[in-house]
């Protein structure tokens, strides 16, 4: 399963060139920890579908249509995590699993499948960290 995730991340890397740079000089590890902490707001070690939806809809859906388009995502990712715009676009394209130009409910199941390397249907925080590391490494 982990091999499939690696192939999926590498395949996305071909389609979205990026430059990894952080204008606040935050390390990759720091940003990944920030993202995971934001998603696992109750600190239970699990990133649930509800955690993903509630975080991204509340923070990233600026127009309230329950879908996050690339411009909304890039703007918020850049403001919140200080990664440069090209890298935020790179992350967006990895999270847009159904490749419809927006993040919405249809991306949740594919995201769980990509990040859940144990195959138990639950994303542990360590699994999501690994998933984000692969996205960073694919840049």
Automatic annotation (TrEMBL):
Coiled-coil regions listed in the entry: none
Gene3D superfamilies: EF-hand
Keyword Calcium: yes
Segment forming the signal sequence: 1-15
Protein name: Calmodulin
Record SUPFAM superfamilies: EF-hand
Keywords from the UniProt entry: Calcium, Signal
Organism: Patella caerulea (Rayed Mediterranean limpet)
Record bears the keyword Signal: yes
InterPro entries assigned: EF-hand-dom_pair (IPR011992), EF_Hand_1_Ca_BS (IPR018247)
């Amino acid at each position: 399963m982990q091999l499939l995730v690696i192939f999926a991340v590498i395949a996305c890397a071909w389609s979205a060139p990026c430059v990894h740079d952080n204008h606040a000089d935050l390390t990759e590890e720091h940003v990944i920890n920030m993202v995971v902490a934001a998603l696992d707001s109750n600190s239970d070690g699990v990133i649930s579908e509800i955690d993903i939806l509630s975080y991204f809809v509340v923070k990233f859906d600026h127009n309230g249509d329950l879908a996050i388009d690339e411009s909304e995502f890039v703007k918020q990712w850049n403001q919140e995590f200080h990664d440069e715009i090209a890298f935020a676009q790179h992350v967006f394209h990895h999270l847009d699993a159904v490749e419809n130009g927006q993040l919405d409910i249809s991306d949740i199941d594919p995201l769980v499948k990509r990040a859940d390397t144990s195959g138990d249907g639950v994303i542990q925080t360590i699994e999501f960290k690994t998933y984000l590391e692969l996205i960073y490494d694919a840049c």
